Each structure stands twice: as C-alpha cells, then as structure tokens.
Amino acid sequence: MIPAAFEYARAESVEDAIRLLGDDPEAKILAGGHSLLPLMKVRFAQPSLLVDIGRLSDLSYIREDGDRVAIGALTRHHDVEHSDILHELCPIVSYTAGTIGDPQVRHVGTIGGSVAHADAASDMPTVLLALDAEIVAQGPNGTRTIPAGAFFVGLFTSALEPDEVLTEIRIPRATAGWSYQKFHRRAQDWAMVGVAAVRMNGGAHVALTNVGDRPLRASAVERALVGGAAPASGAASAAEGTAPPSDTFGSAEYRKELSKVLVRRALEDTLG
Ligand code: FAD
User: Ligand 1 pocket test: which of 8, 29, 35 has the largest number of ligand atoms within 8 Å of its C-beta?
Assistant: First the structure.
C-alpha cells in the first residue's frame, strides 16, 4: 500500500505541465488523484514524476460556447452536478456526475481525470460517448479536438499522447430526452452495468458502461431503432458486440442480460 518513490512538481500553467511531461516520458499528470493514487499504492502505476495541475483554477469552468457547453478539465464532479447551465442545456451530464462515488469523491475528482483515465467502468465517458462530445487536448504542437468516439481506444487507454494535457470537454445541448441507468448493488458503488441514452439527430444514441474494455456505443440497438423498432425489441440487441467482465459482483452472462433490461428502461425514459 506504499507507492514507489516519485518526484513531484506543481505546474504553474498548462504550458508548464506540457514542458514537464515532455522532459520525462514516465511522468503522469495528477488532477484529483482519486484514480491515480490508488493505482500507485498497489504499484499498478509507478510514474517517476507527478505533474500536479490541481491548482490551475483557469481549467475549472462551465460555460456556453456557441451551440456547445464547454467544461474545463479540472471541474470537479460536484460542480458539474450542481451547474445551472448543465441542468438547463445538458441535464444528463449533471445527473450522471451526481451518481459518481460519494460526496468526497465528487468534491475532489475531476471530469478531465475521469475521461483521461479511460476506465470502462466509469460513468462520464459513457455519457460523453452517447452525446458525441469532443475532447480538447493541448500538447507541444498546439491544440487538437478529438471526438469521444475516437478518444477511448482500449483498457485504460485513450488517444491522448503522453505529453498532452486534456484541457476541455465540449458537449452539445441535449434536452429532448435522456436517461442514465446505473445499476449497482450499494448506493456508492461503481456501475455493474450503466446505460446512457440521449434523443439526438432525430433518433436515439445509446452507450454502455462496463461491458467491454472501453465505453461502447450500442450500435445494434441504434440501428434497430432507426428501422422502427420499439424500445423493448430494440433493447434485445443490447449485448451485441459487448465483452463484459466476470467478477464477484456478477458474471459476464448476467451483465449481458442486465444491459438489455437497462437499455429498455433507458429508451422508455428517453423516447416515452
Ligand atoms: P486523477 O486520479 O488525478 O488522474 C487519473 C488519470 O488521468 C491519471 O492517469 C492522470 O495522469 C490522468 N489525468 C488527469 N487529469 C488529466 C488531464 N487534464 N490531462 C491528461 N491526463 C489527465 N468514477 C466513476 O465514474 N463512478 C464511480 O462510481 C466512481 N466511484 C469512485 C469511488 C471511489 C472510492 C473513488 C476513489 C473513485 C471513484 N470514481 C468513480 C473515480 C473518480 O471519478 C475519479 O475522480 C476519476 O476517475 C479521476 O479523476 P481525478 O481528477 O481524481 O484524476
């Protein structure tokens, strides 16, 4: 439970963080530390240097930006949960932030950390995937915008380069209909399975938590809905293309069945 030795540097700006990351290929950014520090304690992560961005307050904001809402990477889950702008323009994001962990986790953990960590069991990546959100990254060569669909590439792996800082998340307005169904055994647990559904572009976007190595779009369900299927029959294809884990909470088969039930509930909420 004791991390390997590491150096620590507090970044004075995003540019400073990028420089520090560029100087040491084994360096890692520290935001809220609620995912990274537990991994370091069991030595699954052994960064040589922690680049602390936790005090870069200009990375903490939620604001309207044209037809999008821009959320700074360091915005805490608590602030996302209680944002008036998000309640009005994209309530699935504020609702989902309120389902993450417990109050302590929500006061310290950041939306950028949750996205950069790319844990398939995390809630917010699934919602951002359903929304076709954009992730903004800044590196030594400037800034680029990555669609959520291309950002989550594998187990705890994102499209971020080691010397890039995730600076902003950009989400569309989505008020027509939405649902996030999180199934867990105890109130503050991670999702055994989660489902995000959003009414968008004349149809429904559906994405799944914890049924593969990354958040997954339920493409078969979306196709069935385009073909005119009702929620109950569309939901029957929810497990197509998934590869859920088996653990002490439930088997892969159980999670597949659960995903069908939760997709049906999410679609009934969203389209009803
Ligand atoms: P950190 O731990 O600081 O960083 C995580 C990773 O992202 C590190 O690799 C770090 O280098 C990288 N990183 C962080 N910020 C950036 C950035 N701006 N640019 C580039 N890389 C960056 N999450 C859920 O979704 N649902 C839950 O139910 C849930 N329950 C939890 C319960 C507990 C008890 C705990 C401890 C955590 C839980 N979490 C849950 C995780 C929580 O949401 C974390 O806060 C979040 O996953 C990581 O955010 P962080 O700011 O703490 O990131």
Answer: 35
